[in-house]
Write the structure tokens for this entry.
Amino acid sequence: MGMNELDKQLLEDKIKKFTYYIRLASRITKTPMPEVRFWDNYCPDRQVDEIAHIHLDIPGGRICVSKYMLRAMDYDDVEDTALHEFSHLFVEDHGVYFQNVLSDLKK
């Protein structure tokens, strides 16, 4: 079943919000903005049930986001996911340094 016009508009708004938070994080950290790619379903390199992930092997990084998962998210989740993935530009794991980077972006 296809999406109705309201669902399409909400998805487009979430895509814009996700991109906005990546752009904002880039300005805050004075880091070039990574590429952001929105997949209709999932990036072929994804892990099971992940909303988004980052490709650090691509110069400048690429953040891949599932439109399918994005549709189910609220706006707080959109912000959290965008900043979470952006934080991986600085540290791959989810340890203390990662949490500090993420916390600094949310201020």
